[in-house]
Amino acid sequence: MSEKLKGVICAGGQATRLGELTRAINKAMLPVYKWPIIYYPLMQLELAGIKEVLIITNPEHRQQIKKQLGNGCVFDRQGRQIFSFSRLEFAVQKYPGGIAQAIGLAENFCDSDKFIVILGDNILENNISDEVEIFKKQKSGARILLAQVPDPERFGVPRFNKKGTKILEIIEKPKKPPSSYAVIGVYMYDRDAFKVIKNLKPSKRGELEVTDLNNYYLKRGDLTFGIIQGWWRDVGTSPENLAETSILVMKTGACGLIL
Question: How far apart are CA 153 and CA 193, in angstroms?
Answer without folding.
Answer: 26
